[in-house]
Write a structure and sequence with these properties.
- By secondary structure, this protein is of the alpha+beta class.
- It folds into 3 domains: 2-128, Immunoglobulin-like, CATH 2.60.40.10; 138-166 and 175-213, no CATH class; 221-513, Sandwich (Immunoglobulin-like), CATH 2.60.40.10.
- The chain is built from 6 helices and 26 strands.
- The strands form 5 sheets. The protein has an 8-stranded antiparallel β-sheet, with helices on one face.
- The termini are close together.
Length: 514
Amino acid sequence: MIRSFGRTLGVALLYLVGAAHVGSPDTWFEGNAGPYRVTVQVVPAGVVPGVAEVFVRVTGEAATGVSVHANKFDATGGAPPPEPATAVAGDPGLYAGKLWIMSGGSNSVTVTVKGAKGTGTAVVPVVVVAYARLGLDKPMAAGLAAMGIFLFVGLVTIMGAAVREGVLAPGEVPGSERQRKSRFAMAITSVVLVALLSGGWRWWNAEETAYVNGMFKPLSASASIREEAAGRVLSLSIVDSAWVHRNDTAWLRQRGSSSWTPLVEDHGKLVHMFAIREDMGAFAHLHPSSSDSVTFPSALPPLPSGKYRVFADIVHESGFTQTLVTGVDVPAAVQSTRLPTATGNGDDAWFAGPVVKGASTFAIDSATMIEWTGVGAKLVAGRPAPLTFEIRNTDGSAATLEPYMGMPGHAVVARKDGAVFVHLHPAGTISMASQMAFVMREPGDTVRGRLGKRISGMEMKGRADAAVVSNTLSFPYAFPKPGEYRVWVQVKRRGQVLTGAFDATVSEVPAEGR
């Protein structure tokens, strides 16, 4: 149980793309539950309905009790009663609980901590979707098959005996006519049972097909690059018909589709778009604008040519988050086209260059360096990763940082084959706008766009109130799969976004630790 806090779901993913991130289904949150500091990991079942595991670590102040409960964003019947989380033996401060999640979509897990300082709560937004198909355990399948055969044979035998001997006097021997009728009854019973089993088999396959077809897939998207007078533009488009026709109720009703809620800004941006070259040699974090929430153009920084994976994080007013995935070919620069050296909003940033494998420090510029303080530790899939970084001046003194879009810093983790992608903050994998959607929602928020405006207003106030941040950043996370990864860490200093990059090798869980 001690290692359970960092483990991920042990079922095969049918889709590399998860709801909020790619190949990284767990939700991580680090923050305050009133006067208590907590780190929360929610491990979804991958199926709906399903049982999610919740792990809560309370640091600093001791807790006398921890409870958790789940709630759907648009629930009308109220939240279910909280479930107690039990202390994990041998790991002080760690609590574990389980929650039934009955419906997919935008959900939340509320963590309540009690202790000497009173009661505190933290709301953790959780996107719940079906992304896995659970296989039937082989020993159980064999046992069920044997029981089925026994029942089949037993029922056929009972019907034959009933016809052959059911009306005979005790001790009377059935004649040839009754024997013939008995065999006929057994044959008819077998045919009926086979027909029922065949129908049940077809029904089961139809249900399974419907389930697989209904498994979550993010909205379809495409990306392209076009040349304009001012420079090259990277344009992201949501081409999914369900999104393009989201306001056409007749179209949606005809196809049995649900309407998506509008997009809301997260950290002041409608979209956080990341372009990562397939060899990991170049990276860009961009924030395109939009006039229709369908096409999102952004000035393309001077990235080297090559094939790029494009990931785009978006947040819906319901609190539902998802990562759009596509790709684009960046051509070599055209000499007659002026390439932009910076974007207009000051929050876009890019990186291109080599990374020294295994290095613990990275020189961001001539005045700033970043150190991964936990890079020497062995990284194991499913266990909490030591993603702690210190930003210092070249003389070793602590660097003074500024909030970057209202946060102390941002990090991006990607596996080199593209199977894992996640955008991290010191608060974890959650979207702050998604968290606000649950905290700020009121009964009267039935008009679409009303809650989104309040979320945007609160976000603007939060960014205005942000103060100077610490030079030490920590990101709660566990690498979900073994493999080769690259981690980009972004901070802001003197009005400029700085990016550092590190390579990481993540190993399998040792056999004795499983």
